[in-house]
Amino acid sequence: MHDPNPPPELLTLMFGQGASAISSTSPRLTLWAQAFDDWLASIQAARGDKPRCQALRSWELLLRFHRCPPWDIDRTRLESWTASLAKSGHTANTIRAYQGRVSGFLRFCSKRPALLSTETIFGAPNKPRNPLIGVSKPAVSNYRSAYLLRPPEARALL
């Protein structure tokens, strides 16, 4: 059965199936959840369903790894998340894409005057923070997994 009033996506990522039972008593969480839904809607309007799903997946992985509210995510947590992604076999390009999507939401928030004037989003008025700034990004090599032909193989190919 389709829920006519689904819970905000951020709450679903944070609390799973129980999100519909959570009535947000935290104004801070409500603001973050609304900003997150607005961000996803802007992605969908500009680029379609696939980029929206990719953005959701990035945040799902991050929030599942740390189990903390988005405002508690700092550089140390992002670095440990990045290392765990690499350890679990994600490619450098995929990790960079996940980092970019997480950073994209924080950039989205920092461009919204209503959010900037609310210290509950960033901790201090007019001081947006993006903890991904300075987090190391894995080096991308287009030829790392390339198979180089030996001379006899190259001759056979030609």
Please give a structural write-up.
The chain is mainly α. Helix content is 59%, strand content 0%. It is built from eight helices and no strands. Helix 2 runs antiparallel to helix 3. The longest helix has 21 residues, at 27-47. It is elongated and about 70 Å long. The termini are far apart.
List the helices and strands and how they pair.
Elements: H1 9-15, H2 27-47, H3 49-66, H4 75-87, H5 92-110, H6 113-116, H7 119-122, H8 151-157
Helix pairs in contact: 2-3, 3-5
Keywords, separated by commas or semicolons:
158 residues; mainly alpha; 8 helices; 0% strand
Secondary-structure element sequence?
HHHHHHHH
What is the terminal separation in angstroms? Answer: 59 Å
How many whole angstroms does the radius of gyration measure? 20 Å
Morphology: elongated
Number of helices: 8
- Structure class: mainly alpha
Low-confidence stretches: none
Number of strands: 0
What is the gist of this entry?
By secondary structure, this protein is an all-alpha fold. It has helices at residues 9-15, 27-47, 49-66, 75-87, 92-110, 113-116, 119-122, 151-157. It contains 8 helices and no strands.
